[in-house]
Amino acid sequence: MRRLLALLLALALLLSLAACGSNGAGNNGGSGAAGDSGAGTIQEEPEPEPEPEPEPYDIYDPTVMPQGGSRDGVTYVAYDGVVEHLFFHPVIAYPELAFDGDSQEKGLDDYMVTVTEFSRILESVYERGYVLVDIADVWSETTDESGNPVMVRNTLYLPEGKKPLILSYDDTNYYDYMLENGFAYKLILGEDGKIASWGIDPQGSEVVSRDLDAIPMLDKFVEEHPDFSPFGAKACLSVTGYQGILGYRTQTDRTVEWTAEREAFRQSEIQAVKPIIAELKRTGWTFGSHTFGHIRLGTVGMEKVQDDTQRWFDEVGSLVGPTNVLFYPHGERPDGDDWKNTGPVFQYLQGQGFRILCSVGIESFSAVKKDICAVICDRLHPDGTTLRSKYVDQRYGQFYDVREIFDWDARPDYGVNWQ
Ligand SMILES: [Zn+2]
Question: CATH homologous superfamily of domain 82-405?
């Protein structure tokens, strides 16, 4: 489906280019790229550095059975069972900076995992037969017999014996508080053209790496284990906007006087993040909203929700493209409940195009709503709270044995509630 779309888009582009050409110079009234320099002006441009040729990356639709029931010698079978969903925050690259006894330490221990734990979890879910699927492929919008729009759960066609797993990563904004607390500062394109993280190590040196952040780490893992992502899916990135995205400060700020200088910096950050977004999307990453201001959807009023949503579209959606996925900040459900009720905030968000609305819970629960075209789903959260929990075997035992995951060397000694 997405390949077809890309093809159609490419075709449309070609056609529109051809149309431009045939219209001649007299008729290109400012539209398109020609508007930039003006006709007849020849600008001297330095010879550009040759870009590294990107490796081709295939993305397949898991809702379509491959022709003949197999692809690359692998048999595909229909799957209608539970689709597990794990979410992570940015991972801790340097535990000595995260767990240094400051006021952030406890929160980071609660809500994050270390790079060591993240890499052990990937190994474990891979070994246990999980394969990645993109969240937006699991449900589709269609119409019921009365012509009303409804969401439906899709049948997935998976390599025989495999189980589907959605990953989402929350707050991949690289907030100010994360910098200096042991996280990557931003994503960049490395010399090989691949996504890498950029940051500062505890000794104060700049580090470009594919081993210190959950995004390049998953890219690398899939390169090494392509059968972990038979459809090319990676994770859905759940981003806010109040401190920009992916480490780039693309936001406006209403609390300061918005000067031309500030806007120029913002525009330069926007230009810098664009190729990162493009490369992520090309290689299987997708985006969802985590609201602009990380707001509590069950607490703040409707006016705040509307203002926040519009701002997310203006400052984030304009960069990452359309999405129908929303991840509730703090896992807080709109109107206090999104399961038994469909309150005004939920209705508003659905009206803005969100169809898959995700909270946090103790299992990968999901339900197609009956009264409105939407699906709600809970996600599990490997982090310090669950890695230390006495329920970890019961709730996470299908993914890993916590005894093989827990990073004893890095985490502070807060104890664990399992044997
Ligand atoms: Zn969050």
Answer: Glycoside hydrolase/deacetylase (3.20.20.370)
